[in-house]
Design a protein that fits this description.
12 helices, 7-stranded antiparallel sheet, 315 residues, alpha+beta
């Protein structure tokens, strides 16, 4: 892995343990599988949501947001950081929620120190401080997928590239805010109480998704909530508690797999298969190779056909 910021997945287990490794207590993420306010409400209290979407690379900067209004006072009075580096937007989005909820969440001494240190900074310097935090960067990078291939090439994205971006939504001071480090200030989406947050944020997200073509489905939504094991214990639901513990075990296993490089294993497996085919005779080996070529060719043809149909639908 490089010394910079590596790409991490939009995954509840990744974000939950990322915060835990930063010293945060009693917080987890839940994947939101439908834009349903009741789904969010039943997992309350909801501290905020993290939305992943395809970023419109060719879109020109706007003086006003397409929905809501910039609140430049909130950029100074709340924790808001400009995004100054690639691949950090996921961690930056969750910190945008977390560091504005430190009155109800135990964020730990390290993040408390970071927030106090950057409290008087403007948004651009807060972004630089975040990007240069070794603690936050190292914890972030510890959840990136292991890869034996290092791509040192840097280039600007074009309209043909699929570029994805994270933004956060949370309630602050009786208003619903969108926190996006690529914007000049938080975006005010109107009055909102903590109780109203599920309904209000769903409405904002629905309007945002409606601006995309109907066939665009590449979105992901994660809710930052209080550790659901706490609530299960409070209501005495042992089945629910068991399910949450099993979920945590699965997340830890998946996070461990992300850190492992399987290229060597795959290479040895292929070597063993080839060795067995050669041992069966040249004709068996050659038939196996030709069959693999045919299968690959069929898959490529089907993939090109599917892409062609998708373009026709979008035309």
């Amino acid at each position: 892995m490089s010394a910079g910021w590596n790409t991490i997945e939009s995954d509840a287990g990744v974000f939950t343990y990322l915060l835990e490794n930063l010293g945060v207590k009693d917080v987890q993420f839940e994947e939101v599988i439908s834009l349903d306010a009741d789904f969010l409400r039943h997992r309350g209290p909801i501290y905020g949501v993290i939305f992943l979407f395809k970023y419109p690379v060719g879109e020109k900067p706007q003086e006003k947001p397409l929905d809501g209004a910039f609140d430049y006072d909130a950029a100074e009075n709340r924790f808001f950081a400009a995004q100054t580096i690639q691949n950090a937007c996921g961690t930056q989005a969750l910190l945008s929620v977390l560091l504005n909820k430190d009155d109800t969440i135990e964020i730990g001494p390290k993040l408390r120190e970071f927030k106090d240190f950057t409290g008087a900074f403007p948004a651009d310097l807060r972004g630089e401080a975040l990007s240069n935090s070794e603690l936050i960067r190292d914890v972030h990078n510890s959840f990136a997928r292991a890869s034996p291939f290092a791509d040192e090439a840097q280039r600007l994205a074009t309209e043909e590239d699929d570029v994805y971006h994270f933004v956060a939504y949370t309630e602050m001071g009786g208003k619903l805010y969108e926190l996006d480090g690529l914007q000049p200030a938080p975006i005010d989406h109107g009055s909102c109480s903590p109780e109203e947050f599920p309904e209000k944020v769903i409405g904002v997200l629905q309007r945002r998704i409606e601006r995309y073509p109907a066939q665009e489905i590449r979105f992901n939504l994660l809710a930052m909530v209080r550790d659901l094991r706490i609530r299960a214990r409070e209501v005495g639901d042992q089945d629910w508690l068991y399910q949450e513990e099993q979920k945590r075990n699965a997340w830890q296993w998946e996070n461990a797999l992300r850190r492992h490089n399987f290229v060597g294993f795959i290479g040895e497996s292929l070597r063993g298969v080839v060795r067995s085919k050669v041992h069966e005779g040249d004709s068996t080996y050659n038939e196996w190779v030709e069959e693999a070529k045919k299968t690959t060719k069929t898959r490529l043809t089907e993939r090109r056909k599917a892409k062609g149909e998708a373009k026709e639908e979008g035309a």
